[in-house]
Amino acid sequence: MDNIKIEKMSISDLDNISNILEREFDDFWNYNILKNELENPKAIYIICKKDDEIIGFAGITIILEIAELNNIVVKKSHRGKGISSILLSNIIEIAQKNNCEELNLEVAKSNEIAINLYTKFEFKQVGLRKKYYNGEDALLFTKKL
Ligand SMILES: CC(C)(COP(=O)(O)OP(=O)(O)OC[C@H]1O[C@@H](n2cnc3c(N)ncnc32)[C@H](O)[C@@H]1OP(=O)(O)O)[C@@H](O)C(=O)NCCC(=O)NCCS
């Protein structure tokens, strides 16, 4: 896709999308939670821009040699066009450059699209947390880096 850029995410990027965050991206992550994440020195967040529009973001927290994918979200109007795949490849590269040995994540059992994305990137399911998200089971996935 043309004019796609990946950049490190700043608080001003978050401010830029704050009005549309929950409606046009995803309502699971609100402004305050993401602001805390961006202020965490162990977290690394990136955005995907098309021209000057922020159309997706993703973040990891790194503790020693383990990276945890906190979120990966694409703007609703830009889904199904490969944007999360671009974000996830960049996240994997960043985790590798930071000497991480694995990338872990949790995903709601019903989130088929995200599970397809993780399977495409060769994550393996390694566990299940009962009633993790508001009563819904979460699947644990990991990828060796
Ligand atoms: C999950 C999400 C990030 C996918 O973003 P996207 O940019 O639309 O995904 P892509 O276009 O890069 O597709 C990646 C893969 O996801 C799967 N996928 C994408 N859209 C799909 C659909 N409508 N149905 C089934 N699988 C789908 C496919 O495996 C696809 O790979 P392929 O196109 O090579 O077959 C996006 O739906 C989203 O933001 N959802 C809300 C937030 C969320 O649930 N995040 C994950 C948990 S934190």
Brief summary of the model shown:
This protein has five helices and seven strands, in the order E-H-H-H-E-E-E-H-E-H-E-E. It is of the alpha+beta class. It has a domain of 99 residues: Aminopeptidase, CATH 3.40.630.
The main sheet comes to:
7 strands, mixed
Radius of gyration: 15 Å
Shape: globular
| Residue share in helix | 25-40%
Spatial ordering of strands, largest sheet: 1-2-3-4-5-7-6
Terminal residue distance: 26 Å
CATH class of the domain at 4-102: Alpha Beta
What is the helix tally?
Answer: 5
CATH superfamily of the domain at 4-102: Gcn5-related N-acetyltransferase (GNAT)
Q: What class do helices, strands and sheet pairing give?
A: alpha+beta
Describe the structure.
The protein has a domain of about 100 residues: 3-Layer(aba) Sandwich (Aminopeptidase), CATH 3.40.630.30. It is built from five helices and seven strands; from the N terminus they run βαααβββαβαββ. Strands 1-2-3-4-5-7-6 form a seven-stranded mixed sheet, sandwiched between helices. Strand 3 and strand 4 form a beta hairpin. The protein is globular. Coenzyme A binds next to strand 4, helix 4 and helix 5.
